[in-house]
Structures are given as C-alpha cells and as structure tokens.
Amino acid sequence: MTKILIENGRIIDPANAIDAVGSLCIADGKILQVLNPPADFTPDLTIDAKEHIVCPGFIDLSARLREPGHSHKGSIKSETRAALSAGVTSLCLPPDTKPCIDSPAVVEYIKDKAEAADYPQVLSIGALTQRLDGTELSSMFALKQAGCIAVSNAHAPLGNLLILRRAMEYASSHGLLLMYRANEAALSGKGCAHEGAMASQYGLPGIPVAAESIALAQALELAQLTGCRMHISQISCKQSVIKIQQAKKYGLNVTADVAIHQLHLSENDVRPFDSHYHVIPPFRSEEDGHYLREGLSNGTIDAICSDHQPHDLDAKLGAFPETEPGIASLETLLSLTLELTTLHRIGLNKVLASLTQKPAAILGLQAGALTPEFSADVCIFDPKLHWEVNEQTWHSTGRNTPYWQQSLIGKVTHTLQGGRLLYKFRNR
C-alpha cells in the first residue's frame, strides 16, 4: 500500500478536537499520524494542502444511486464518481431500489456493483416491510447479517401504527437502527409544495406541516414505548425541530438529519414552473428554515445529508405537480455546507462534524475521524475556490439541480478512500 503525506493543510477533525495546520500521514490504507509526521516516514506520494482544509471523508445518510432498477437515471458507478468528487467516502443507499432491498440477494448485488465501481463503502439500508408495501415485515435479521446498516421504509407509507410498533420491536431486538421519514400520507396526499402562500397563489396542491409533525409525534411515542433506536430522516419544519429537541431532553434515543438544500431554500425561492424545485418534503417557510439552522447549530439536528436523487430529463418535464420530486445534490453538498458558515454563522467545525463525526456515530461506524488506525478516508478541499455548476464540473448523470450554471464557493480537490487517492480535481 502507498504511503501518503498530506502537508501544510489546516486539519479539522471534530471527533478528536483537532483544528491546526500540520501534516497527515497515511500508511497501509490507514491513518498513521496526525499533525507531526514520524521522523522515519518516507512517503510515496506527497500532497501539498497549503491553504486547503483536510478533514475526514464525508458520510452521507441518504443518497440514491438509481441502481438497481432505474439505470436510465444513473448507476452505482456514475453516482459514486459524483460522491468522490464531493468528498463523500461512505454513503447510505435507501431501500427503494427496484427490486427493493428486502432480501440478502439484493444486498449482495449492490455490494458486487459497488466493488466493481471501486467504491466499496455503499451501505445498504434494508426495507422495513416486504416490497415496501407497508404491511408485512421484512426479515430484518437476515438483512442485518447480509450487511444492512439500518432499516427504513423510505418514502413508502406504513399500513398502520401497529405495523410501525411491531417493526420497532423487531428492529430493537436485533440492535438495528430504524431510519424513519415522518409523513402522514393521508394528509400529504398528492401534494407537491408547502401548504402556504406560494401554493395558494399558483394553485399547487399543498402538503401541510402537520403531515410531518403528526407522523413524527406518533413515531416518537412508539420509540419510547419500544425502546427502539430511531433516526428521523430529512426533517423540514419548525415543529419537527421542537419535538426532537423535547424528545432528546427527556432521554429518548433519537437522532435526526436534514437535507442540505432545506437549510438554504424556502417556498419563497420556488419557481412554480421550474420542477427543479420540486422536492419531498417541500421547501417550507422562511421561519421553518430558520428553525432548521438553529436546530443544527444547537445540536438538535445531528447530521446533514445530500438526499441525492438524480433524474433523467423526462422525469422533470411537464407541469410541476406531474414531475418527479428530488434534486441531484451530492456535488453541491460541500459548497452549500460552507455557505452556512458565511451566511448563517454556524461554526465550520460544527458543520463538518455534521458530515463526519455525527453520521458515523449514528451508524455505529469506525469512521468520520482522523484517528490513528482508522481507515484513511480523507477529504481535502479549497474553501475559497469559485466554480460553476456545469457540464465540465459535473459528474452525476442527473442534471436536476436548481443551482445549474450558478457559481458556488468551495470545492473538493482530493478524496481518499481507504488510503487510495480516487479523486483529484482538474479544471476541465
């Protein structure tokens, strides 16, 4: 294995409370030493990270790769290339593939594809119910043995609360994390926008905040009843932040994440005839966005995810409500995260922890830190580099982003996974 020396960079490792200029030594695919290299260390490769930041590789709690089943939108190979260009060295794949991740055979297929793409750290999330139909529980123990990191029903609704209770009991008995997207389907219906002024003005079917907050309240009650370790995925509103804050205060074993675009965009930014703004959950009010950022700042919200959902062109053509929701968001993850530090004054160490240390803790991974003997998953980025979102800089098959042809600040220049340099930025 190659010995690598990364020198002159500002090393930020929230897990080990490191923020200093120094060197990072890598040997045999693992972190050897941080800040001061050993006297006898002779590198095979030296990377000068002057005026760059060196940190653990990012861990993304939700990124759809469109394989298996939707290869016209993307593939494990194309989307993991996008992940590497974004500094993401481990990512969680939600179970709503086709076929869904409800059997060990599908988990093995994804592992094989990830290995072939030279990106082994694709972490499958098992389906909570068979075929994600919301009625019959999946064989969670078999999914865990096959390598699933957690279980979830993705965006698919559950038949009733008794099924959710039984699922929590089953997951808890096997020590599995349950990842839950709070949405009461009867209330959200076929909505496509936040139920507010913008939806009313343009006649778009709305999704009320209560669709999320009511489902969340029920799930929190059941988590308390069953003792299940629950992670709330992609929250979007003030009420959710308050409920999670209260749950944590009284000792409930719950964590939460938010999609990066929800921290920046609100219903006021939505262009009603531009389906690139069609996301579920929808962009909420300015007040909701403020509470989400406050929740991230004070630790109520543990992690940021990309909620990457690449689509082909046809999926985004047509009237706003008829298009498929989702944003291709891996490659804007870093720039938008850094924007939180400049526009909203959330500390750099804190936002980097939400992409590294905290997701690792949620998943129980020995990752997200530059600890000696940990796998050398490393991201190096230039926080001041201006770049444009365009064909020359983009790697994902999906072009569905509201930031297309916009100039952003902050770019990953090198990504190492397991001590291998797999991405190096080149101005094309």
Task: Describe this protein's structure.
This protein is of the alpha/beta class and 428 residues long. It folds into two domains: 3-55 and 374-424, Urease, subunit C, domain 1 (Roll); 57-363, TIM Barrel (Alpha-Beta Barrel). The chain has twelve helices and 18 strands. The protein has helices at residues 76-85, 104-116, 140-146, 161-173, 185-188, 197-202, 209-226, 238-249, 286-298, 333-343, 348-353, 357-363, and strands at 4-13, 18-27, 30-35, 45-48, 53-56, 58-60, 88-93, 122-127, 150-152, 178-180, 193-194, 206-207, 230-232, 254-259, 303-305, 378-388, 407-417, 420-424. The strands form three sheets. Strands 1, 2, 3, 4, 5, 16, 17 and 18 form an eight-stranded mixed beta sheet that branches. The protein is globular and about 65 Å long. The mean pLDDT is 96.
